[in-house]
Amino acid sequence: MNVSQSPAPAAAVPAADAFTHAEGTAGLNSARLYLCTDARRDRGDFGQFVDAAFAGGVDIIQLRDKAIEAAEELELLAVLKEAAQRHGRPWAVNDRADIAVLSGAPVFHIGQKDLPLDAARTLLNGNAAIGLSSHAPGQVDAALAAAAGPSALDYFCVGPVWATPTKPGRAAVGLDLVKYAAEASAEAGSGVPWFAIGGIDHSNVDQVVEAGASRIVVVRAITEADDPAAAAAALLAALDGATP
Asked: Based on the structure, what is the number of domains in the chain?
């Protein structure tokens, strides 16, 4: 090659099966039960577990495990993706946009201190639905504004409603923030899905519904259940009557 010539640009590395923003939002719009799970290293049953959870009625599963390396996360996400496709459900990646792109995730979730929404949208090249955690009224307002703005936030979570060991050191926000989110969303006329999260289980899900939530995120209520499918079905039954 002549040294005066510029080298040809490298071809972009394609994601594992291209995903679309529409695929992520389609599942979110009807979703009521969202599950976050770790890699289940102690049980070694990740594949069987996510399959059972979907079979019980879980609408979307997010793998959230800060203790695993990227290579292992990609392997587990391939298992999750296969289960999700069998059940016709979306699945989510937490925090890392590079992992979301490489795995072909239809949904990507960020926290308040993670990537800014605009940056995440750019890195994902406009693909994948994006969700955001919110812990205060101002953050709920910002999420509703972002949903209506050019970055088009696709969903947000409100919590933690109760203290939970999955988020050590984060104070519970209580049911008041759930009520605020319900009222603010209705007042704004926003159709963006939002989920209550944090310490929600079979014993208190009715309180969350009464506060105005029609969608929930759970962890231990299903991950620690002897029968994940039955636990999921029971939570869905408790959500019956709540209007998304």
From this structure: 1
